[in-house]
Known about the structure:
Layout: H1 3-8, H2 18-27, E1 29-33, E2 38-40, E3 48-54, E4 57-62, E5 68-74, E6 79-80, H3 82-87, E7 94-97, E8 101-107, H4 108-117, H5 120-124, H6 129-135, E9 149-153, H7 157-163, H8 165-183, H9 190-214, E10 216-220, E11 223-230, E12 234-241, E13 245-251, H10 254-259, E14 261-268, E15 274-281, H11 283-318, H12 333-341
Antiparallel strand pairs: 1-8, 2-7, 3-6, 3-8, 4-5, 4-7, 9-10, 10-11, 11-12, 13-14, 14-15
Amino acid sequence: MDTIARLKNVRLFSSLTPDNLARLAEVAIRRSYPKGGLLCRQDDFGKTLHIIDSGEAVLRQTDLRGLERPVGYLRDGDFVGDDALLMGDAYGSCVQATSDVQVVSIRKDDFDRLLEKHPQIQGQLRPRRLLRERLKAPTFPWLEPDEPPLLLRRRHWLSLASSLLTPLFMMLLFSAALWLLSRVGVTRITVPALLLVALLPAGMALWHIVDWRNDFYLVTGKRILHEEKVILFRENWEEAPLTKIQTIDITRDLIGTLLNFGKMQIRTASAVGVMVLDYLPDPEGMQEVIFKRVAYLRSRMQEQEKEDIRRELVRQISGSDEDPSEVILPLLPQESAKRSSGIYA
């Protein structure tokens, strides 16, 4: 399939005009990977979108326990790295070719330059829902400078709807009573009754709406937070570092399955213990964001530990406390092989 037709079949670019599709095709690169070749590694910042043009590849993911397992397959028209292209994220999976693979790749730097030159393309993109939410995630003044907001969620609208049943029932009850009074000839209290019917349930409904808006679940680059605020009564705040997360369990009932929400239980090794996020919309989407960030943070921690060990070895070998940053130790065989293979972006 030619490059323009392949790009047109990708949802992200499916609404681009013919002119903009042609411009995008100009920055796209065709690449070939042999069977067994790596298109990308989990936690790497390749900043490249890969679209499978022909062949097949397997996605492997390392979970929170450090176990790697296949989580899916890519075939003609499938892609990986849309979040890397739009947000500069690390890859969430390792992608390995299971046959000879031809891909159409778009690098973030080239894509960003294209958007600067033709900003109308931005408005024609169709990112998947989770990415749309992440792109709109608000920031807060209390976040640390190096702590980007990744995903903000509020409880599903069904939780709000259920809390509005009481004021709705009161409005119907008062309206029925007012109608009965008017039927028996009692009219003097009609105006005050109308005000009561309108103001009391409306005030209760407004209180529930504001209360629903005040509660949220937030995933940042460092932690997950849950704010529970009841106006004029209490405010609870739970948070746990992402690196302390041990397991995540998701449960749904029949209604949750139909309306796409569920309960997420996050077991942590922090003081908060277990965090429970109920009425959570698209819990698997939030789980994906958490898993990817946790894997990235743990990978960076392992690299830092290796660097600390390396520096300590240099100090012991040199017998000096001076900064060993200029001293280069030979690479381990596996490290040398990774750097010299050049088979992943």
